[in-house]
């Protein structure tokens, strides 16, 4: 098997060339920097930009390499020590890998005593008594793996500060008792305008200070652990409620400490508090009551208006009936009255009797005409009510009185 800048190539028993770490669609492969076969006959491949690969069932599977919050993508060389651990030079230092669990146990860098963090490809040598030598652009780094002791103790993380909106929170709560040192507090309360905060913490260990990392999470907001090399965590929460902050330290040998917890009780905004909702309920009830009163008043006014309209229509119907009655009576009076006045006027025209009787006939005629005029006036009023009265224009002379 041969590693190239364009993947891995091997020849099987039938002289057929097999390609690994090669993308046929893009016609390109990974740049392989080092191939290594361990004591269990497992082949490991380090690449320039894709990290580490392990051969499993005639396939190369990627082994994710993550340290703190950074991914290791370049593996320059690989070698195994007497305890079956793999040591690799990378673009971030020399790392120790447990090949069974595929977990990084430690990462040593220039600040830990190496000549540099950039190493040369395929430049590694194992000397007797597990003395390893790695070559780099700045020289060689050599160490004895048997003399590197594993630190199996990781002290508990201490929370040192709680900052919100740029200010330190000076008072904390421990079982409903205020304390001034957050390291002794188990819980704290924050107002609605303090939900953007930063928690500072530290792991009191002076061994391999540069290699320790932290894992933290805020239950109630997230479930996964966050990894960082910094000693602080920043959050911005939106909702009120109880949150449980958890943090633990990881020393340079991958040993994790116990979890340190801090309960954060975020108070609701004043407009979300219980008394605010009581006020909202009272206002709603008041508005509903006033609206109901207005609705009832409007309904009553509509009913009164409807009743008045019914009464008005009823009065109109009564008046109409009265007028119709008087009109009918007028017609009944007018016909016989006309029949009376006609012969009476003829009688007056041909009368040759006494003057006294003639005057009496004139009185009868005058009263008959007056009665006929009243009947005609009543009928004209009826026409006016029915909009049947016509105005006739005529020429005449206006005399001043």
From TrEMBL:
All copies of the Signal transduction histidine kinase dimerisation/phosphoacceptor domain together span 321-387
Keyword annotations from UniProtKB, A to Z: DNA-binding, Membrane, Phosphoprotein, Transmembrane, Transmembrane helix
Record-listed E.C. numbers: 2.7.13.3
> Which molecular-function annotation in GO is an example for this chain?
phosphorelay sensor kinase activity
Name the InterPro entries for this protein: HisK_dim/P_dom, HisK_dim/P_sf, Ig-like_fold, WD40/YVTN_repeat-like_dom_sf, Y_Y_Y
Q: Which SMART domains match?
A: HisKA
The family database entries (Pfam families) matched by this protein are listed as: HisKA, Y_Y_Y
What are the TM regions of this chain, as residue ranges? 271-292
* Catalytic activity field: ATP + protein L-histidine = ADP + protein N-phospho-L-histidine
Write out the coiled-coil annotation as residue ranges: none
The name on file for this protein is histidine kinase
Family matches, as Gene3D superfamilies: 1.10.287.130, Immunoglobulins, YVTN repeat-like/Quinoprotein amine dehydrogenase
Q: Which organism is it from?
A: Nonlabens ulvanivorans
């Amino acid at each position: 098997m041969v590693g190239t800048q364009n993947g891995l190539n091997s020849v099987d028993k039938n002289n057929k060339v097999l390609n690994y770490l090669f993308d046929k669609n893009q016609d390109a492969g990974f740049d392989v920097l080092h191939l290594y076969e361990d004591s269990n006959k497992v082949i490991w491949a380090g690449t320039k930009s894709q990290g580490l690969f392990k051969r499993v069932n005639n396939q190369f599977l990627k082994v994710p390499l993550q340290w703190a919050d950074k991914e290791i993508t370049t593996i320059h060389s690989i070698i195994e020590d007497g305890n079956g651990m793999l040591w690799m030079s990378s673009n971030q230092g020399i790392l120790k890998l447990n090949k069974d669990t595929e977990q990084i146990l430690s990462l040593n860098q220039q600040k830990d005593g190496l000549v540099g963090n950039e190493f040369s490809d395929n430049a590694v040598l194992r000397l007797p008594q597990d003395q390893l030598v790695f070559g780099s652009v700045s020289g060689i780094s050599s160490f004895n793996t048997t003399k590197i002791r594993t630190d199996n103790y990781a002290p508990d993380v201490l929370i040192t500060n709680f900052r919100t909106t740029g200010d330190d929170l000076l008072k904390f709560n421990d079982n409903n008792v205020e304390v001034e040192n957050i390291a002794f507090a188990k819980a704290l309360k924050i107002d609605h305008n303090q939900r953007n905060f930063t928690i500072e913490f530290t792991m009191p260990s002076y061994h391999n200070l540069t290699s320790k990392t932290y894992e933290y999470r805020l239950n109630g907001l997230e479930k996964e652990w966050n990894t960082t090399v910094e000693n602080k965590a920043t959050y911005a929460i939106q909702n009120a409620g109880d949150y449980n902050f958890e943090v633990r330290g990881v020393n340079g040998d991958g040993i994790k400490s116990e979890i340190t917890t801090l309960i954060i009780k975020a108070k609701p905004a004043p407009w979300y508090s219980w008394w605010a909702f009581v006020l909202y309920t009272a206002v709603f009830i008041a508005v509903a009551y006033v609206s109901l009163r207005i609705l009832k008043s409007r309904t009553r006014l509509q009913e009164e208006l409807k009743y008045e309209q019914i009464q008005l229509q009823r009065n109109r119907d009564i008046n109409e009936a009265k007028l119709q009655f008087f009109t009918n009576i007028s017609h009944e009076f007018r016909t016989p009255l006309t029949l009376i006045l006609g012969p009476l006027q003829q009688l007056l025209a041909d009368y040759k009797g006494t003057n006294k009787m003639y005057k009496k006939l004139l009185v009868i005629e005058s009263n008959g005409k007056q009665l006929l005029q009243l009947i005609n006036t009543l009928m004209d009023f009826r026409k006016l009510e029915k909009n049947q009265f016509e105005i006739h224009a005529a020429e005449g002379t206006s005399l001043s009185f």
